[in-house]
Amino acid sequence: MKRYLVVGNPIEHSLSPTIHNYWFKKNNISAIYEKQEIKENELKNLITGVKEKKISGINVTVPFKKTIIPYLDELSPEAQKTQSVNTVSLEKNKTVGHNTDIEGFELSLKESKFNIANKEILILGAGGVVSSLIFTLYKMKASKIVLSNRTKENAEILKRSFKNLEVIDWGKLTNFDMIINATSVGLKKDDKINLDFSKVGNDKFFYDIIYNPAETDFLKNAKKSDNKTENGKKMFIYQASAAFKIWHGIKPVIDDQILELFNND
Ligand code: ATR
Q1: Which of 48, 95, 155, 187 has its CB surrounded by the most CB atoms within 10 Å?
Q2: Residue 92 a catalytic site member
């Protein structure tokens, strides 16, 4: 039986196995998808497992989306540009790294009906997923992207790949049409971002990459002032469906049962 894996650290709360195993059933695919918490020194062996066809595909999550790259034979153009890989497949006996976070984020934005063209975007955070956000937002013709991260150096590193980025100090806010929380603040229920949104106004788009909990303090506050909000659920589902398409050549159906998986908190 074919075996697929999601690897990361931590990995306990990943919903990827539930989604992919559900889609296996729906599409009569004989395979199993599991999660595995790993250390960085296990990456090499895992990729060897893909090469030797012991593992048919791997999803990679925090904190290995970049560190996996040296072990792969090839990268898709998107993975190359963002230096971020979340999906590994074997193609013509070569291990290939893909980035389906980009498609996930793009489709979620299209569905939200917020038109990114000519908008000013403020991103909070500079972790593994942020290069994918920036890539997508420029692709969708954002006029300006400003980045703020607690450790400024990590934001400056991203500026090397995206020259037009503006970096500001953590704690400051600029004008924006859309603000994205890409920090890990909010994963714990009582987490609060230490920023003052009281002067932001009420016609902005607040997007949180976090999907569990479904409503972070960041989104709760935004709603109080009648802003538009979106959590990371759609992005997560769409990145999974793009990975499924790469591995199986089938675009899986996103039905109510999939959406309900996320209503458990
Ligand atoms: P990784 O960097 O391994 O990809 P991540 O969870 O995707 O991990 O990223 C964590 C992000 O949340 C980082 O931008 C981190 O900021 P630093 O670069 O300064 O570490 C940010 N972050 C985590 N805890 C934070 C906090 N208490 N306040 C502000 N930002 C925080």
Answers
A1: 155
A2: no
